[in-house]
Fold this protein.
Amino acid sequence: MRLRGTHVSVWHRGASLEQLESLYRQRYEHFVRVAAAITGGAEPGRDAVQHAFATAVSKRKSYRRAGSLEAWLWRIVVNEARRLAREPQLASLEESYEPSANGRVPDELGIRSRIAALPERQRETLFLRYYADLDYRAIAETLGIQVGTVSATLSAAHETLRKLMNEVER
């Protein structure tokens, strides 16, 4: 497009289907792990990811490129998992947790229930850091908070879990 003799590049808004599909394929297991942790089960976690990506595809033109596409997707996945977690028919985290990759289900120390008892922001920050392996900046973009808040939130979550585990040892 020309404007007063000057070439103006058109800024493309949105994400392409190829970009979304690529992230879906690359990070699917991470998305599901976090969504399952938020919803309390693998099946609702997979449902959350499927709904989130359907939403992302239908709203891909609204991606403004202000942050990373992955962080934009994470925000959609986390919001969808939160929505599903509020539905009354879902079982609790302790009851519906599926075996990990090494096949261990027992939780003799009750760590899952202690994580489930954390405040929502602390719990989600832990999931995004350790289940999704996101860096602090991506977590901040996903949750709509500052990078320093991510660090403080993780620190608070670790401290709370440490105190709870010390109570178990007594």
